[in-house]
């Protein structure tokens, strides 16, 4: 009887605690990455369309993805940005190329299948500034529906299609402003 009443109290406390947490809104998570003069805020990645890990822990995969994309954009951007210039992106959605499919026991992990119907997409706001003066600002919804057309990249880049989206955007949108 003593055990049953203790168990009942614990259950009631857990239910009340759960109700209290559901009523309050949790703050959105933001992950910040940077490379030289490039700063990227990845807002609420839990709501992104597809950044699903096929292997390993999801949070570590996300951090790896965000770091790799920042580093690759930084490689291109930092060649053109002067020390007093800064490029800031606030990413609101990522949909990686392909779709994660289960292997139904054939392998211990799911696999990412690349098909034309699953193009890479990235949505973000950006600001290019120099000495705290805004040179260019805007919002972008990038996608490459022809990402499987043409010559495919060969190499060990884990996110070649997403890197291409960002670097092509930089060359077409930001680089001309820097040349003025």
Automatic annotation (TrEMBL):
Residues 1-20 form the signal peptide. The keyword Signal applies. InterPro entries: DUF3016. Pfam families: DUF3016. Keywords: Signal. This is DUF3016 domain-containing protein. It comes from Shewanella sairae.
């Amino acid at each position: 009887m003593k055990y049953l009443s203790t168990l009942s109290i614990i259950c009631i406390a857990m239910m009340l605690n759960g109700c209290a947490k559901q009523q309050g809104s949790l703050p959105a998570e933001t992950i910040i990455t940077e490379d030289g003069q490039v700063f990227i805020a990845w807002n609420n990645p839990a709501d992104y369309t597809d950044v699903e890990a096929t292997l390993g822990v999801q949070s570590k995969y996300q951090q790896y993805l965000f770091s790799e994309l920042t580093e690759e954009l930084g490689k291109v951007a930092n060649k053109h940005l002067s020390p007093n210039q800064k490029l800031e992106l606030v990413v609101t959605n990522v949909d990686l190329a392909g779709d994660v499919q289960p292997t139904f026991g054939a392998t211990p992990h799911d696999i990412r299948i690349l098909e034309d119907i699953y193009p890479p997409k990235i949505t973000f706001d950006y600001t290019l500034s120099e000495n705290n003066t805004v040179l260019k600002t805007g919002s972008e919804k990038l996608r490459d529906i022809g990402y499987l057309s043409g010559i495919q990249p060969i190499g060990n880049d884990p996110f070649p299609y997403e890197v291409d989206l960002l670097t092509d955007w930089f060359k077409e949108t930001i680089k001309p402003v820097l040349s003025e």
